[in-house]
Amino acid sequence: MGNSPAVDTSATKPSSVARRHIPLALVLIGSITLLIVVSVGSVLYISLREATENTFSLLADKANANLDLLQVQIGSKLGPVEAAATELAERIGHGSYTVGEGDSELHHLLRGALAALPHATAVIFVSSDAHAVRIARFDGRVGPVPENPVLRERQEFGLRRAASLDKPSWVEPQWMPLLGEPVLSFIAPVKRNGAFYGALVISTRLGELADFLASIEAKSGVRAFVLYDNRYVLSHPDLLKHGKNISATAGEVALPTIAVFEDEAFRLLRKDARRATRIMETADVDDAPFDDEYLLLIREIAEYGPAPWQIGLRFRQSDVFTDIERLRVAALTGLTILLAAVAIGYLLARTLNRQIGRFAATADRLRNLDIANVQPLPDSPIRELSNAANAFNALISAMRWFETYVPKTLVLRLMKTGSAGAALSEERVLTILFSDIRGFSTLVEHMDPVETAGLLNRHFALLATCIEAEGGTVDKFMGDSIMAFWGAPEDQVDHAARALRSAVAMKAAIISDNARHLATGQPVVAIRLGIHTRPVVVGNIGSHNRVNYTVIGDTVNVAARLEAFAKDLALDEDCVALVSGATLRAAGDAAPAGEVIEHLGDVPVRGRDGKVEVYRLTG
């Protein structure tokens, strides 16, 4: 304990190299002007490029929104068909339905299923022995359909396909000349007792989809279409015009090809099909097929058949690049404004730099509560800076009064916690210390008020230094007494040991100070200390407009009673320090080394039941 700490004097040595200081005015004027002049071209270029990319991104977002809407529309028509077919296949497979003449039960089942599917046109069940039940929708009515060659061909096709399927699936769409639109069928194999029993087929017309595409074009001016396998047209607004005049293509897929339609989108698609099939997943408009007039965007979906579908949009280039031209005009305007800003900035920088530096330095000192080193700010010819300087000066004056009445170390610790909850009242185990001047009334009996205040101020400063050196918080000054605590607001696991070390330091400081007083003929000051460790309530205590960060509870009373009990010992010492057994146990091995501890026994405490184990620091 007697070793003096080493002092690092390296910070006080003069630097061998003189540091060059650049005026703030030169930094502001030179750097800002240079940066603006050098970067203006690149900034404008980057801004224009970013704005262009954003324009295309907005176009892609618009396209994606339309494509999402179209995809949802398709799903809303085909999803219920898929679910219904799967469920019907399971019911037929697990039920006792048979296919025969006059079998009304199976007829009713299929009729009810078709009635619940407004977008479906027919439901057919074909048993493995080629017997079939056919229900179709005609002019809004649902009923059985007599056999005909076309239906027989579709039944045979469905039966063959179902027998080869492991799970229900969509098959190739077909063009129906009589309907003037394509039809898509979903086939679900039906198994009974593990064996193939037949095929369930639900067909749905896609003509209504063309109405939806036409509505997109009417609202946004964007042409939309749906293809099958990049070559065949499933839906297009022109289907409404041509309808039955469109001829089907012979082959495996009987659908009209894109060559049948006079559409610039399909011309671009035939011209650059490779790019058209890959651009929409990333919404990369730069990679989309285009010419001088149109831009084409495609998305591929692979959920409704052996080959993927393509849903696409065609935009006019003029709708896109009109905004780009506006951006160029805005860029020229921005250049003019930036040049004007350089000139204005040059003039203002010279005026602002000094005051800004003062504001920054003052704010930094105020932030650290270094009030003693804060100087008042001079006035400024600029009204706002003058108002700010006056506000800062008023704040400095208020903070000096604040520092006088509020423990600065406590505020800094609460700020360090970084949480408003640190000041909320809570129960914690803390160590409380009370100090008191022995015979204070006699000591100041012949002093005037000014001398008394000076003695107390010097005494309190001496003890508060010892308390704060160990991380303690001075709670309050009460007459000639001090109340302090350890363990809050920040957690201190060794709060009891800190309090003991602080008591030892106080004792040494009082003895040293009294030696100086004796040498100069001044009165000596003897103190009593009481220290106790137990749970207390700590936090903000007070009213809505004034609070104290303090501690309350029986522990505080016991510490005060221990300090008062020291008076009963009638010891003529500079410092009598009494410590509870709870504090010594809490300190454990961290208690100050070399201290002599005298056990005084269990002492009754005035105003409470029971006794407190008391020790005296005699070292």
- Stretches where pLDDT is under 50 for at least 5 consecutive residues are 1-17, 274-292
Largest sheet data: 8 strands, mixed
CATH architecture title of the largest domain: 2-Layer Sandwich
CATH topology of the largest domain: Alpha-Beta Plaits
Give a structural overview.
A hairpin with a 4-residue loop joins strand 1 and strand 2. The protein contains 15 helices and 19 strands. Strands 12, 13, 14, 15, 16, 17, 18 and 19 form an 8-stranded mixed β-sheet that branches. Strands 1, 2, 3, 4, 5, 6 and 7 form a 7-stranded antiparallel β-sheet that branches. It is elongated, with a radius of gyration of 46 Å. It is of the alpha+beta class. It has 4 domains: 98 residues, no CATH class; 141 residues, PAS domain (Beta-Lactamase, 2-Layer Sandwich); 115 residues, Beta-Lactamase (2-Layer Sandwich), CATH 3.30.450; 212 residues, Alpha-Beta Plaits. The N terminus is likely disordered. Helix 1 runs antiparallel to helix 4 and helix 1 crosses helix 8. It is 46% helix and 23% strand.
